[in-house]
Amino acid sequence: MREQLETFIDYLVIERQMSANTAAAYRNDLNQYLTTLEREGMSSAEDVTRHHIVLHIESLLDAQKSRSTVRRSTSSIRSFHQFLVERQIVRHDPSRHLDLPKPDKKLPVVWSQTDIVRLLDSVVGNDPLVRRDAAMLELLYGTGMRVSELLQLTLNDLQLELGYLSCLGKGNKTRIIPISQTAIDSVTTYLELARNSLGGQQTDYVFLNSRGDRLSRQGFWKMIKRRAKEAGIEKEITPHVLRHSFATHLLENGADLRVVQEMLGHADLSTTQMYTHVNKARLHEVYKNHHPRA
Question: Which CATH number is 202's domain given?
Answer without folding.
Answer: 1.10.443.10
